[in-house]
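fyi for ur records
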Amino acid sequence: MAGGSLLMLLDDIASVLDDVSLLTKKAASKTAGVLGDDLALNAQQVSGVVARRELAVVWAVAKGSLLNKLILVPAALALDAWAPWAIQPLLMLGGAYLCFEGVEKLVHHFLHRRKRSEEQAREKLARLEAGEVDEKAKIKGAIRTDFILSAEIIVITLGVVTQDPATSFATKAGVLAAIALFMTLGVYGLVACIVKLDDFGAYLSEKGMALGRMILRAAPVLMKLLSVLGTAAMFLVGGQILAHGIPPVHHWIGHLVHDWPGFAGGLTEILFNGVFGILAGAVVLAGVHPLKKAFGKGH
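which gave:
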């Protein structure tokens, strides 16, 4: 009798693991686009850190990302069980924040640039080399942005695993945990490779390899490109979340791209989502900026 019970338990575990494997694969394909945005955003967030501190910063953000997911996975399971209606509004708030942060970056870049004296520049460089305020701010900003993107990944995954009402709690938890772990390892492993690309190029160059010089020339361009893509990703991801959460906007965009062929239609929809994200971020900034000034926290 005990042997039969053990075999039944093992069979149940094997069945759950099989379901987790299949649904994890399906969820990974659904969240692949967000993974690309997550990579661009996080590579942008840790760029500009003094070279000897780059991996330390990536590791700090990766630990923060794991903590985010340790919060989000149980929260998603709890919301699915007791308040499924709250998932979409929370996702909308996250999308609005991404758009707001993107617009704030653009405004700060184009309207608040000031010429610094040599003394001010040296002081900033000294702070960077000491790994002080700027590094801490970058880590906090990266973890904050990661929280929103991680929330979207978790919610998308939750949507996949809840399509079948018969999916067990153990399967849901297993898929969410697997996606959370794989996404964190994938994103921050690639970010670590990207930020150390110039060091790898220097090593190859010292060995007399032409590839090293090519990498050294390409690395700054790649980092600038990732910075641009990271800001654009805020609008694309945030705009998509908001557009999909507002039925009239979603239907209007769908109607506009309905007659476009496959790739062109998809690209046009992405661009419309991005434009909508910029407009939404501008509206949020217009509402938040007076409050920040009133409480003495304006830039």
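The first helix runs from residue 2 to 30. thats all i got for now
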